[in-house]
Amino acid sequence: MSLDHALLVSLLEKPSSGYELARRFDRSIGYFWHATHQQIYKVLARMEDAGWISGEVQPGEAAPDRKLFSVSRSGRSEVSRWLAEPTEPEGVRDSLMVKMRGAAFGKPGALIPELEHHRALHANRLTAYRVIEARDFSGALDRQRALQYQVLKSGIRFEQGWLEWCEEALGLLHSFDQDQGGNTP
């Protein structure tokens, strides 16, 4: 997937200025597809040049003028083409997993603070997802909201899995630490 497609989907959900899009992106798609505001603006310009989106300048009364972007017919065609294209699962690249393997050759207990940090980050993200779930996905859902909720459920399950793994890994590291009296070779 390219950032282009992530932005097209976001603009299909709601036409936005670059600033609004970057803020919304941070609060939704940004949970699983990271992009800087600078990258977003660069891609918006490229997509506008390609005819996938159009921008309409709206004069600001109390604020500066803003350019509101919406998806064109050509952009909708690109989304349709992209949706029909097969996608392979993306590989995981995580330095913590390499550290876990490497801990066999050092002091496994030294990873405990890092794992506790990861556990806290994943717990915080899970809490944020649960707040979003309670706020945005109660009651009957239309097609768009139902599909967005499926994405959120994936995030919830991902964070739950990480929390379970962190607990298991911390238990293992603590057992190694106790076996060696806190001085694991």
Major β-sheet profile: 3 strands, antiparallel
Domains, number: 2
How large is the radius of gyration? 22 Å
* Tally of contiguous helical segments: 7
SSE ordering: HEHHEEHHHH
Q: Residue-averaged pLDDT, rounded?
A: 89
Q: What fraction strand? A: 5-15%
Structural class: mainly alpha
Low-confidence segments: none
Form type: elongated
**Strand segment tally:** 3
- How far do the termini sit from each other? 44 Å
* Helical coverage, percent range: 55-70%
Lateral strand order in the biggest sheet? 1-3-2
Describe the fold and architecture.
The structure is a single chain. The protein is mainly alpha-helical. The protein folds into two domains: 3-84, Winged helix-like DNA-binding domain superfamily/Winged helix DNA-binding domain (Arc Repressor Mutant, subunit A, Orthogonal Bundle); 95-179. The chain contains seven helices and three strands; from the N terminus they run αβααββαααα. It has a three-stranded antiparallel beta sheet. It is elongated.
Concise account of the structure shown:
The chain is built from seven helices and three strands; from the N terminus they run H-E-H-H-E-E-H-H-H-H. The chain has helices at residues 3-13, 18-27, 37-50, 73-84, 95-102, 112-136, 143-179, and strands spanning 16-17, 53-58, 66-71.
